[in-house]
Amino acid sequence: VVNCKGEVRGEKYTDINLPDIICDEELHIYQYKLADVILEGKAVKKGDYIAKLDDSQIMTNMRNFMQEKEKVDSDLRDAMLDSAVNLSQRREAINNAKLDLEYLKIDLEQSKYESEAYQRKTQMNYQKAEIEVDKITRNYLLEKNRQKLRVTRHKDRVAEYQVKIDKYQAALNSTTITTPEDGIVMFAKDRNGKAYGKDSQIDIWRPSVATLPDMSVAITETFIREIDISKIEVNDSVRITIDALPDKIFWGKVIKIANVGEDHKDFDMKVFRVVIRFERSDKEMKPGMNANSDIVIASYQDKLL
Hints:
Elements: E1 2-17, E2 31-37, E3 43-44, E4 49-53, H1 56-110, H2 116-172, E5 176-178, E6 183-184, E7 186-187, E8 201-203, E9 208-225, E10 237-242, E11 245-257, E12 271-278, E13 290-295
Antiparallel strand pairs: 1-9, 1-13, 2-4, 2-8, 3-6, 4-5, 7-9, 9-12, 10-11, 10-13, 11-12
Helix pairs in contact: 1-2
């Protein structure tokens, strides 16, 4: 046999991950601390509380964006006020130019009783006034479009900041982690193989917080040293004992062998991940129990021991 150690778990399980809004990279928060967690192995009902994330980073970032939004709100108000004053002055200039044009039109109509030279002068003044009205009107329309673009840019900035603040608010409301269904809570493990607990850090790229294993089909996951891995094959029989259930012996089979070795803190050489499925489960079997597995790699009968 090849002896190895592992933990009992369910082959099927429900993941409990960080909420999607918490993992949004636009929040610029890439790691969260667990401020509080329940005891691992506790039986829970759907919707029960299991963990609370530290929300201090969310609050700090949201407060910064709210302060920035106050500035862009002020810029928007100033832009709208400037636009109103500027356009009002230009509309008044158009009205004055049109009024001057009306006076010149009256002079033009009355000039028919004057000399030809005076008539030409009056007509030229009237044409000049017409050109001026057209010019002022065009300038007004250009300025109106310019002011509209300016105000729109400020409105877009305000809306952009508001969207970010709304995201932080939604993230703040999602810092309490609850269970999606009934089960027994088993917390996920960090890169070093240590189960999450209070003050643990969770990366948004590894969002698993805990699992709810289904123990109707049980497995144990173990690691085999590279010098022994070539001795093991899929479907090899395994004799399993559980520390918490010393009077019982279980049997299983190897169902998966990793293709690539990895480093592990408990070994001084490369190891390969091996998954073993129990032939039957047991009502006393709980996720997280320590399991000792003897993988049968050869069997002999009637041999001198």
